[in-house]
Amino acid sequence: MTSSLAARARAAAIQMTEWRSVTGTQGECDFPHLLKTMRAPALIVWGDDDKVVPISAGKRYLESLPDAHLEIVKSCGHAVDMEQPEALAKLVTNFIGRE
Q1: Cα–Cα distance between 52 and 90 in angstroms, integer?
Q2: What φ, ψ does residue 94 adopt, rounded to 5°?
Q3: pLDDT tens for residues 49-69?
């Protein structure tokens, strides 16, 4: 993985964390019906030891988003971007590079 791709993946993860803090959301979407209208591929990344938002929320996203992929990061809690940034960067890089 190139350093620029890893940096972009980290930046995307940070932006998501900032978005959550601004909107006050912690993984639950107030408008799940809107998820079905998304046309872009989506990568959902969840820590297997997330004690803040249950994996059922991630599965709900997976069911609601038309083109979604759910990845579970082992030995990780709620803050995947902070707890396992390299694992997240690899997942994002692979997702971006898929055809």
Answers
A1: 23
A2: -65, -40
A3: 999 989 988 898 898 888 999
Residues in the chain predicted with pLDDT less than 50, given as ranges, are 22
DSSP 35-97: HTT--S-EEEEEETT-SSS-HHHHHHHHHHSTTEEEEEETT--S-HHHH-HHHHHHHHHHHHH
Active-site annotation holder among 64, 78, 93, 94: 78
- Identify the structural domains of the chain with CATH numbers, from first to last: 3-97 (3.40.50.1820)
Note if 33 is an active site residue: no
The answer for 23, left when phi > 0, alpha when psi is -120 to 50, beta otherwise, is: alpha
